[in-house]
Amino acid sequence: MMNITARTETFRMIVDILSTLVEEARFNFEDDKLVVRVVDPSHVAMIQMEVDSAAFESYEVTESVLGLELSKISKLVQLAGAGDLIVINYNDSVGKVEFQVGEIERTIRPLDRQNMQEPKVPELDTDISVSLSGAKFARALKAADQVGDLVTFSIDQTRFSVNVTGESDAVNVSYDAGELQELNCDSPVKSQYSLQYLLPLAKRIESTVDKVTARFGENYPLRLEFEFADGGANVVYFLAPRVEGDA
């Protein structure tokens, strides 16, 4: 059994972030929180999301696991008007999820969750990190996208830089320590990542996330951390590096 009421902006953010990697997701509605873990088909990027029950307007759940097609939910959320709440009901005996947005009622049959993989969270060990606003993070990646598909993150004790060097052009965006919320680095490192994965995420958090923390090392996986819904929702985004010799 499940009966949840959510603010439109909260549920939209949940769906939009997951949609940057996958078309469907396994939603684990636990007693006190929603947990979702997804990995893209190429196993290059992964999202772990936890949304505390307090982030919802109401949350009455007997543990349920539902496989849902994100595009269907996204289209419904787009119809929400100002101030509308999203009401979600599910009953095992019926086997369908009922969504209500304002005067709109929509019934969706869950997907077969047995065929939906739930990835393990990787254990990454690095003390190097930088924190900045979602707006600054998105601005840097948008600039990088004008030149190439692969972006290099560089960090030292005083600065964090995002740069791309193409065949004829180059772009570099640098933030000194004083322009950042946090900077932790003992020695200079850099690593390269695909904008194909980073840019869609950056655009979705540009105006909604006050703080993004990036953790990485020399040619090392990237770990991005941020919150939304007034701190009630936590997202960790993992991205494999692109190293020399990768196709």
Your description of this structure?
The strands form 3 sheets. Strands 6-2-3-4-18-17-16-10-14 form a 9-stranded antiparallel beta sheet. A 5-stranded antiparallel beta sheet has the order 5-1-7-8-9. Strands 13-12-11-15 form a 4-stranded antiparallel beta sheet. The protein has 2 domains: 113 residues, DNA Polymerase III, subunit A, domain 2 (DNA Polymerase III, Chain A, domain 2); 111 residues, Proliferating Cell Nuclear Antigen (Box). A hairpin with a 2-residue loop joins strand 8 and strand 9. The protein contains 4 helices and 18 strands. 17% of the residues lie in helices and 43% in strands. It is elongated.
Task: State the major sheet.
Answer: 9 strands, antiparallel
- Rounded to the nearest angstrom, the radius of gyration is 19 Å
Element pattern in H and E:
EHEEEEEHEEEEHEEEEEHEEE
Low-pLDDT sequence parts = none
If you average the pLDDT, what whole number results?
95
Largest beta sheet: what is the strand line-up?
Answer: 6-2-3-4-18-17-16-10-14
* Number of E strands: 18
Structural class label = alpha+beta
Helix content range of the residues, please?
10-25%
Task: Assess the beta-strand content as a share of residues.
Answer: 35-45%
CATH class of the largest domain: Alpha Beta
Gross morphology: elongated
CATH topology of the largest domain: DNA Polymerase III, Chain A, domain 2
